[in-house]
Amino acid sequence: MLKKFKHWYRQLFQVQEAKYQDILDIKNHQVTIQDVDYFLAKAQFTDIPEMLGIERAVYGGKTPWDSSAFASELKRGQDRLYLVVRRHDRLLAFIGCTFNEVKSDAHITNIAVVPDFQSRGLGHYLIAIMVKKARNLSLKQVSLEVRASNTRAQQLYQDLGFEKKGLKKGYYFGDHEDAVDMVLMTGAESSDD
């Protein structure tokens, strides 16, 4: 009996792993966003210094995440997806997302666009990819936190259908700024229903 259970359990999770790998797989390719050509790729360890550079540019010289945090996320590729956007070999934007079937949630962990390329549709495009992946995995929601002071990003998320769901007091490391919880319901039915 135990042997049959182990076999069933292994099969179940191998199928689940394959499903995630298929859906979260992205081939590096050219994309057009607002009539401009870019290159979309899965983030690699070699991208981390440039990702940190984008964070410094966006967050006034600070990096909310360090290289080891990004490296740890990139190692966990099975339920994570990190993407980068380049133009003329310059890293312009990135996004990271975790996909949790138990919570039926795709959580955007990090998104940033270099200041001189903001308002060109890159953030919108990257979030739309993660929402589509969440729907394809039948996850019920996409969630994220955003700084309470970052009203521009909050507006972008609301334009994409996210709603404010709460406030996390003192959430951010260093300055202890509050975070606004935002959630987008995907309309997908979770496979465990």
UniProtKB/TrEMBL annotation:
Keyword set includes DNA damage: no
Keyword Nucleotide-binding: no
Ranges of residues in domain N-acetyltransferase: 31-187
GO terms of molecular function: N-acetyltransferase activity
PROSITE patterns in the record: GNAT
Pfam families linked to this entry: Acetyltransf_1 (PF00583)
Name used for this protein in its record: Alanine acetyltransferase
Species: Secundilactobacillus collinoides
